[in-house]
Design goal:
about 25% strand; single chain; Pdz3 Domain; 11 helices; alpha+beta; 21 strands; 2-enoyl-CoA Hydratase, Chain A, domain 1; six-stranded antiparallel beta sheet
């Protein structure tokens, strides 16, 4: 009992000593102890014990309830998430609000309900770059160069293309009335188009004019890209091509699974990338077996600084296994892997979860200077050719695209010159 009383006396003495010490300045100045100072001390002690989640929630609550004017709590939440991601300094780790997240999912899936056409801005509404072959717009008679001037009777002038796309898309099987202005036609043409499920073409192919060389352009790697590539490659092989050019210029990447499946047409059961996570765990991705095409022709791959991610992986794998020669300029240098984490409200977070290395062990990570300008990284082209930017150059046109011309020479085994290509002779006017 005496021991207990001694301990109790010690605790009481310590508390009394603390209180006297804390309030001594006020007592000395003949003032009442400051309750505000004491409260701040207690609050500071509590704040140290808060978890990051509790701290964020407390500030969110204070702003939403105490700010001098009403705030949109949803936008406050999204702004917080954006700031959270931005603090990492990783341009590939981003927060996507519901609409952006939905658009991203549509892009990677490669299919949506609409009319099937690529649009670009125009003061009158939107210009048709190209209707997808055999898509609803194509079947209804829409042509490249048409300008959308009205949707369901409403003028499209001075509206954003994204807003017009939203109006054009809708439920499968429903009708949309689109008025287009066409060169050489005085009055707008009314097209009634039935919305349908559309698969975005990401692969274009042809035999280059005046040659027996096949040309395959891949704009991105989405879910249907591998099947589109397979179909295009089969047509070219049936034409008994003597060489193949794969154009990955300005391909920003996409799904690693899609690139892996395409690479499986060239090599079976071989390493595509080695991915390393922060805990040291390593995951190896390999090509599939049994679907390689045994393509026995020279191959060139066109790349530039806008070739990134999955495009770099495909080009790097073909280079590492000596299947293809890279032509053009250095690639972007995106050596990271992202995973998308969906949220209950339709938003999502795309977070870098690993770094990858090519089969040779090469790290292509991009480095930049203080101003964000490229210093090093990416894949180096085996045959370096800068794209000419003079007027009249059309990427993918063998008559004016000097990088494509260089790739043709590589496939043919001819020497490549970096000298500027003279412009084509003007076509004589027909009297």
């Amino acid at each position: 009992m005496k021991s207990f009383l001694k301990v109790l006396a010690f605790i009481v003495g310590a508390v009394a000593f603390f209180c006297v010490g804390f309030t001594w300045k006020d007592i000395k100045n003949q003032e009442a102890p400051s309750a505000e100072s004491f409260q701040r001390l207690i609050s500071a002690e509590k704040r140290v014990q808060l978890t990051p989640t509790q701290l964020f929630k407390n500030h969110y609550t204070h702003i939403s309830s105490s700010y001098y004017r009403p705030v949109d709590v949803e936008q406050l939440k999204y702004a917080g998430m954006n700031g959270l991601m931005a603090s990492l300094g990783d341009p590939h780790t981003i927060f996507m609000e519901p609409k952006i997240s939905a658009d991203f999912q549509t892009g990677t899936s490669g299919n949506f309900v609409g009319i099937g056409a690529r649009l670009e801005p125009d003061p009158l509404g939107a210009k048709i770059v190209s209707p997808f072959p055999n898509g609803p717009a194509d079947k209804a008679g829409m042509k490249a160069g048409d300008i959308i001037v009205a949707i369901d009777g409403e003028s499209t002038a001075n509206q954003e293309v994204d807003d017009l796309v939203t109006k054009i898309r809708g439920e499968e099987g429903t009708l949309v009335r689109i008025s287009v202005s066409r060169e050489g036609v005085d009055e707008p043409i009314m097209l009634t188009i039935r919305r349908a499920r559309v698969f975005t073409p990401t692969v274009e192919s042809r035999i280059l004019p005046g040659t027996t060389i096949g040309y395959l352009s891949i704009s991105e790697f989405s879910e249907p890209t591998a099947s589109q590539f397979d179909e295009s490659l089969q047509k070219l092989m049936s034409a008994q091509i003597s060489g193949l050019i794969i154009d990955l210029r300005s391909n920003g990447g996409g799904l690693l699974e899609s690139a892996t499946e395409i690479l499986s047409r060239f090599v079976a059961d071989r390493v595509v990338v080695k991915m390393k996570r922060r805990n040291g765990e390593e995951k190896v991705v390999k090509t599939f077996s049994g679907i390689d095409r045994e393509l026995k022709v020279p191959i060139a791959v066109l790349v530039n600084e806008e070739s990134a991610s999955a495009a770099e992986i495909m080009a790097g794998v073909l280079k590492d296994y000596r299947i293809a020669t890279l032509v053009g300029e250095h690639t972007y240098g995106k050596a990271s892997v992202q995973q998308v984490f969906p949220m209950a409200d339709g938003s999502s977070a795309k977070i870098t979860t690993a770094r990858y290395f090519l089969p040779s062990g090469t790290d292509i990570s991009r480095t930049v200077d203080e101003e964000g300008q490229y210093v090093s990284g990416g894949l180096k082209a085996d045959v370096r050719v800068e794209l000419e930017t003079r007027r009249g150059v059309v990427v993918g046109d063998i008559r004016t695209d000097n990088q494509l011309q260089a790739a043709v020479k590589v496939v043919k085994g001819e020497p490549v010159s970096s000298a500027p290509t003279p412009p084509p002779a003007p076509t004589p006017a027909t009297p």
